[in-house]
Amino acid sequence: MTTTDAAEAPPPERLQEHFDATIARDQRIEPRDWMPDGYRKTLVRQIAQHAHSEIIGMQPEGEWITRAPSLRRKAILFAKVQDEAGHGLYLYSAAETLGADRADLTERLIDGRQKYSSIFNYPTPSFADVGVIGWFVDGAAICNQVPLCRSSYGPYARAMVRICKEESFHQRQGYELLMTMMRGSAAQREMVQDAVDRWWWPSLMMFGPPDDASPNSARSMAWKIKRHSNDELRQRFVDMTVPQAAKLGVTLPDPELRWNEERGHHDFGTPDWDELMRVIKGDGPCNAQRIQRRRAAHEAGAWVREAATAHAAKQAARGKKGAAA
Amino acid sequence: MTSDKQGWPLYEVFVRGKRGLNHVHVGSLHAADDAMALTHARDLYTRRNEGVSIWVVRSEYIAASTRDEKDPFFAPSADKVYRHPTFYDIPDDVPHI
Q1: Alpha-carbon distance A31 to A39, whole Å?
Q2: Is B44 close to A7, i.e. CB distance below 8 A?
Q3: What distance in Å separates the CA atoms of residue A117 and residue A208, rounded to the nearest whole number?
Q4: How many Cβ atoms sit within 10 Å of the Cβ of residue A223?
Q5: How many CB pairs under 8 A join A and B?
Q6: How far is residue A312's CA from residue A319's CA, in Å, rounded to a whole number?
Q7: What is the pLDDT of residues B61-70, one digit of tens each?
Q8: A107 within 8 A of B5, measured Cβ to Cβ
Q9: What global pTM score does this model have?
């Protein structure tokens, strides 16, 4: 987009003041507003990481598209994985309003300079995993993302509104899938419990390290990029999920999990933070496979991108010739 | 704002939600040409009946006004109170005005 500076911007010393006042009034920052470098960098990092998570997040469930047990489940799974791609693209689009470049972001993902959510580095050995991902992982994503609809950066908040509308389908299809399996054979119920046992703790880790070990959180909250702390959101997820687990008839694998009348919340055990750090650093069960597949898809698609560019150039040249004649 | 490595320019996407409403900006995407931009916009921004019509335009063709929403550029619209109906005192007993 080209900007015509028909009128003068506020003088430099007032820029920070103006930015702070906009945040304080709970108004949104928009793409061409002045913003502190730290704010811009934090947003690009967070939005890119979020976008990468959506794109990598297509893989664990995508593996089940060809093996879904019915046409109904296959169609649902297709739609869901397509949504994940869409979410990634909304978010890349938001990152680009901050001056990030799409191709550069992709490069940063596949050469490991930018991260994605640790949760997508766990494998999906059974079809119950598809249900549990919808229930836990998309449920946790909803806890994280609903407050982001009020994030101070306009394009990010608007992308989150679209995404949240669609996540509700994701969570519900997962829970319904699990209800169906729980009505099935003893072996199917065991598959569900096994998937719950494997995904519960990694899902709690999705909210990030505990507040006292999350160095950037306070600044992000001051800027109103984030609205709630990691621990608050984790608590919200646990409180939301416990009654759903009871209704489904599965046991959440935490002996310390119990209702605390005084706090009005559930107490729960401590996730293995060393495991989270290992997975973030690249040593999870599927890190290498996820990136390798993303890289292969990107490289195998290069000729398509080039051919489309060549076709567009040819059409444009023909159009010009036609106009001249 | 074209990407050198990819070579596909950036497009802004506008969707008309239903008949009777304006097209509204919904986001952007990359495409090789206008036709691809329209089909990508359909796939990306209207998967659930969000639109009945789509406009796409290369981002570089949009001229934008200001750095900031509260810019002196818009000052002329703030100082003409006589443009608003409430500027005029009309007795309460005058009907339908």
Answers
A1: 12
A2: no
A3: 9
A4: 21
A5: 99
A6: 10
A7: 999 886 655 5
A8: yes
A9: 0.90
